[in-house]
Amino acid sequence: MTLTCRIHAAHDLRLEQLDTPALGPHDVRLRLGAAGICGSDLHYWQHGRVGAFQVREPLIPGHEASGVVEAIGSAVTRVQPGDRVAINPSHPCGHCDYCRSGRGNLCRTMFFLGSASVFPHAQGLFRDAFVMGETQLTPITEADIGLGEIACAEPLSIGLHALHRAGPVLGETVLITGGGTIGCMTVLAARLAGAARVIVGDVMDRPLAMARTVGADEVVRTDQIDPKALADTADVAIECAGHPAALATCLAAVKRGGRVMQVGTLPAEIAFPANSVMARELDYRGVFRAHLAFDWAVQAIRSRRVDVRPLISAQLPLTQAADAFALAADKTRSTKVQLIPS
């Protein structure tokens, strides 16, 4: 039996003892290293859904995690007991047209951990022990890289994928709206990609201070300025807040011929300045999860080309999951809150 955190409905978070699945030949049993509480986990907890993905059965959340190998199946060759590993939560089929064209994040039958996008749900990683296929694991041999850092590979991959979708930004100005975990990871990615100037906008002071810490050149309280003050300032604008006002800031700030990237999940119906997008020849692109960028993120963290440690605000034991979720939801006190073994 293993201690498990499950969401049964909005504001119904329970700790339960569940069986750990048996090992198959290519499976690995792991104990939890660290697991970050993501915005999507908070949406499932607060609203019982993320966009169109609604909780229809008890859901184990969690898709940002590291682990330590406890046992391996008879055919496993990639890892050994005792290895510390990064865990890729994406499990594309590898056979559909999107997978074959190199866009596995758009797989027609994607199995993404901790998600209600499929039914039965893809159960996640907020549990003391779990079983994974070996192909989703990357061993980390660098002793100075902590389990909390390794667990940040998935959110960093989102920022890296956003910059990949934006195209070359070397020498350009990048505006990022939203200074939470994903916004700050996108700052790190923009710096890695050679952006000359990175501006971050948010409506709270703490996220902006964190954005400064990880490399933003300028920060702006977007609720305290006229949006026109940012007009024509950015070559690329990246929406990471999941709020219509943040998207409006991006669309107002980007230069003619610029690129606007939507990372955040927005309401189903919003006002959209389609004629302005047309007349200014803006490129509007979606960013959904990541694919190859997960491996890029692992390498960036293990080499410390990026340092994610300032973003980890707290680590709480799984037995305190309710407190951890409440802390993660309070953006005046936290950026990334992680669960660790009990």
UniProtKB/TrEMBL annotation:
Q: Which cofactor does it need?
A: Zn(2+)
Q: Describe the location of the Enoyl reductase (ER) domain by residue ranges.
A: 8-339
Q: Which domain of life is it from?
A: Bacteria
Q: Which UniProt keywords apply?
A: Metal-binding, Oxidoreductase, Zinc
Q: Which PANTHER family match?
A: SORBITOL DEHYDROGENASE
Q: Does the keyword Acetylation apply?
A: no
Query: What are the leading ranks of the lineage?
Result: Bacteria, Pseudomonadati, Pseudomonadota, Betaproteobacteria, Burkholderiales
The family database entries (InterPro entries) matched by this protein are listed as: ADH-like_C (IPR013149), ADH-like_N (IPR013154), ADH_Zn_CS (IPR002328), ER (IPR020843), GroES-like_sf (IPR011032), NAD(P)-bd_dom_sf (IPR036291)
**Name by which UniProt lists this protein:** L-idonate 5-dehydrogenase
Q: Which GO terms describe its molecular function?
A: oxidoreductase activity, acting on the CH-OH group of donors, NAD or NADP as acceptor; zinc ion binding
Query: What's a Pfam family this protein contains?
Result: ADH_zinc_N
Q: In which family does this protein belong, per the annotation?
A: Belongs to the zinc-containing alcohol dehydrogenase family.
Fetch the PROSITE patterns from UniProt.
ADH_ZINC
